[in-house]
Structures are given as structure tokens and as C-alpha cells.
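SAMPLE LOG
Freezer: B-3
Tube label: C17
Construct: single chain, 413 aa
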Amino acid sequence: MKNKSLPGKKTFLILSSIAVILLALPSYVLLKNKPPAIIDGPAPITLKAQQIASGLHAPTAAAFPVNGTVWITEQDGKIRLVKNGKMSATNVLDLHRMLVNINDSYDERGLLGIALHPQFATNRKFYVFYSAPSNASKSDHKGTLAEYRLLPNSDMADPKSARIVLTVEEPESNHNGGCIQFGADGYLYIGLGDGGGAGDRHGDTGNGQKLDTWLGKILRIDINTETGYKVPKDNPFVGKGNAKPEIWAYGLRNPWRFSFDRGSNQLFAGDVGQDTWEEVDIIAKGANYGWRLTEGTHCFNPSSGCSTKGITMPITEYSHKEGISVTGGYVYNGTQIAALKAKYVFADWTGPIFYLEKNGDKWLRGKVTLQNYPTNLKITAFGEDPSGELYVLTNPDTGPGNTSGGMFKIVKN
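STRUCTURE (predicted):
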């Protein structure tokens, strides 16, 4: 996701190598400026982009504590405040001292997720997910979920209110997930990648299919406790041998962004692929999404003849002819854009924006074009405000060193 060295300049070889090793996306250089070509899909939708914020350091997520107020997390550790349409000089919180050292040219670590407590209006609590240093053997860093609280009558968080809820050792620097979202059930859902490297290479069968690790999973926990967390009794793997009871769903490579549809309460996730396929899944209790047996609907390991029994297939997939890294979005539940109603809006990191609409038992994919929107931007995340309107977070570069990231609201044409 960002930095000082742009692809195609003197660091071309370095960044290409990083992209191949960390993302396992060897087509990056060839595809980064190519628009997608969608064939036989529903009609394109043309909308506009309204800039909300600029000058950001690789934005990764957004939260909306009050109508008209926006918090934007930056990969290097800051939570920026936009209030009354203006970027504040004061940060909500600065966690950069808590993070591992971030590579400016490209890195998948950092401040990766934020979620407001369902009772935020009264208890002022929120949660962040970030990459902390680790001293553990064979660990690159420690994924950390922490709770904070705002100071009284302030837009700033109290650093002393920090409470570490959960930590997970990460063997590699990439595939960290980091998305956190509260469901309508009041529980917190946490996305974790497979541990990194390429091809889910840790252990005999990788991490995605193993139930004795959190890696390659979406977790579900109850954070309404003074210390640590509780495991909901109805989690699917509670009491199932050596399976981790926090697991809600498994078989994921890197569920970078996921969200709940306010209308149906379904959980939509964009799971980043390996060499060939990107996918969007509807996450269900206890379901297996196939990685590393499958990539999208296709065999991965083994490369052919894999058993798909018990695997829940994605609702859509697209090949690396159209993009290289899916960025999950939201189902539109706002009131300002009738053309998007009930459609799932998402993107590829390289820039193209898509939508999915339900047609019988299938999901059809179309393209969204934004006017008044710069070209060649990387899309790092989406946001949803209290009214259900959608936002796009962007970075013009591949790493955290760039200071020209932005946030745009999607508005009608």
C-alpha cells in the first residue's frame, strides 16, 4: 500500500521484487495501469467523487463517530480527524511508537483497522488493530487488537486507556488482514491472513485449512469484559477438539477488508488471491472458503483434481487480467444514489471499482466509473457513514511513505 519511491523509477526492481514476494502478484508491473475489461456484465454505473480529505499517509480504514466527523487511520500509526469538513491539526491518536518499523516503499504492516464500540456514544470506546514488534521465535511481528477510550469532552483518545485485547504472532510481514467490524450481534469480528509468504507455506497443509491456528481465519469475540475477551458460546468450533474456539470461518488467504450489510446482516469479504484469481465471499458461520486447496473456484494446491467437498465458493471472482488484489467494500444502504441500492461496491487495489447485484441465485458484476476522480490511484479501503453513504480511501503510491493519500465520497452524477 505506499511511499517516496514510485514504480517505474529507480526503485523499480526493488518494488517489483517486494510485490512478487509479499503479495505473490507477479503481474503487478504489467497490470498496475490497465483498466479492467468486464464482458457480459450488467451496465456500468457512472457517479462522481467528492474529495473529503487529502494529504494522508496511506489511509487504511475509516470510522464515523458522529455525523459529519470522520476518523481516518493511516498505515504509519495516526488516526486523523476530519471535522466540519476540515482536517484537524490534532490527531485522535498516534500509535507510531507502538508499531514495527514500516518500509516506506511497500509494507503490509502498520495500523490496519478501526471499529467503534456499538455503545460508543455513551462509553466512548473504540478498537484498533496494528502490527507491533515481537520477540517470539520465527515471528516477524505481533498482530495486536487494542481498546482505547476518548478523553472526556474531547476528540482525542486517552493513551493511558489502552487495553490489549488479543495478540497473534505473524511469521511473515504480509497477509495480515487487520479488518475489524462489529456485527449486529454486538460481537467483534477480526480478519487474519494466512501468515504470509506465498502459497500458504507454513506447515504441511498451510494455515488456512488448520483449525488449531487463528491465521487464515475470521474470528468472533466478545470484548465486553474488563480484561481480555470472552468466546461466544455459539461460535462454531467451541468444544471441537483442538480447534480454536474464536474461529468463525476459515480457509482464507488474506481477508483484507470485510463488512456487514445493514439490510441483510450478511458478512461480505474480499479475499486477496495468489497468482491468478481474486474473490468476494459471503462469510457464514463455520464455513470453509477453500484456501489453499482452492484459489477462487479453481484448484491451487493441488493444482488439479482437488476435492471441493465442504468448500463454500465465492459469489464472484475475477482474474489477474483485470486486477491483482481485491479491496472489499460495502453493500450500499444509503439514500442519495438510487442506482446503487442493495448493490455491493468493491474494488481492486490497482484502481477499478466494481459492483455486484443479486440476480436469482447469482451475483452479476458491473463497473463503477467515478467522475472528478484522479486516475492511477490505489484503492486501499472503503468507508460507510451512519447514513449508509460510501467513501473510497486512496493512495497514489505503493507504500506508506507517500503523503498524498485521499478520501472521496461517492455521490450521484
